[in-house]
Write a structure and sequence with these properties.
Layout lengths: L10 H14 L3 H6 L4 E10 L7 E9 L9 H14 L6 E10 L22 E3 L2 E3 L2 H10 L5 E4 L3 E3 L4 E3 L3 E5 L2 E8 L9 H13 L4 E6 H6 L1 H13 L2
Parallel strand pairs: 2-3, 10-11
Antiparallel strand pairs: 1-2, 4-5, 6-9, 7-8, 9-10
Length: 238
């Protein structure tokens, strides 16, 4: 009889590691789908039939309602495989399913004023005569400026033919290749704007920018050099 702990990692650690694993394996589109998502691991106590006394576990992913259709059978299977590898074997949980649910939203207030712009001077951080949305972005900036790359910080991009504007966190040119580095998880990229951020990535791809990488804000703050190295490595190989 297997001696399992039945004590899985916390949801925050599980979600972070799952995103890192998918990023490492080149599943950038799936990482984009999970940007801002709420990810939880649960079990109802049924045996998985994969291991003696192993319990079947389900990964619950909560995303904006518009994104649910993108989680097709193939995408869910990739998530099942990756999630199962994140959980240590001694836990005794075997991931067998992925449940995708929408964020619960309040109905719009017809009398409420239209939302104002996100760029407000009192919320910005001035660093070397440039303005950033967060301290985390300045740490990425400090590393990027030491590398032989051309980059723009929070520049406004005008999408010709669409009449729209977008503001990527970092637009980077390395050896003639263009890519976008996004810092995810802070006040300007929370779950509530995840769908908008994902749509923005797809818009940039329509204009030929194929390398758009999302990095967790905690990792960007604690290990900015690792983030920049990973991003530039991916950009150079595309």
């Amino acid at each position: 009889m297997a001696d399992f702990t039945y004590s899985p990692p916390g949801n925050a650690d599980f979600a972070h590691t799952l995103r890192r694993l998918l990023q490492t394996e080149g599943e950038t589109q799936l990482v984009g789908l999970l940007a801002g998502a709420q990810i939880e691991l649960s079990t109802c106590g049924l045996y998985s039939r994969q291991r003696w006394n192993g319990y079947a576990a389900t990964v619950r992913v909560v995303v904006p309602v518009e994104r649910i259709a993108e989680f097709d059978a193939k995408t869910k299977q990739k998530l099942v495989s990756a999630a199962d590898r994140v959980i240590p074997p001694e836990v005794g949980f075997d991931v067998t399913d992925v449940e995708v649910a929408p964020f619960v939203e309040s109905p719009p207030d017809e009398d409420a004023p239209l939302p104002g712009p996100t760029w407000k001077p009192d919320r910005l951080i001035k660093h070397e005569d440039l303005y950033f949305r967060s301290k985390t972005e300045t740490r990425i900036y400090d590393v990027l400026k030491t590398r032989k790359v051309l980059f723009f910080t929070n520049a406004t991009a005008v999408l010709g033919g669409k009449g729209e504007k977008r503001e990527p966190d970092f637009l980077v040119c390395c050896e003639g290749r263009w890519g976008i580095l996004e810092v995810m998880g802070e006040q300007y990229h929370p779950a509530a704007t995840a769908m908008r951020d994902h749509d923005r990535a797809r818009l940039f791809k329509d204009y030929g920018i194929q390398v758009i990488e999302f990095y967790d804000a905690k990792r960007c703050y604690s290990a900015p050099e690792s983030v920049v190295d990973d991003f530039l490595s991916r950009l150079r190989t595309r």
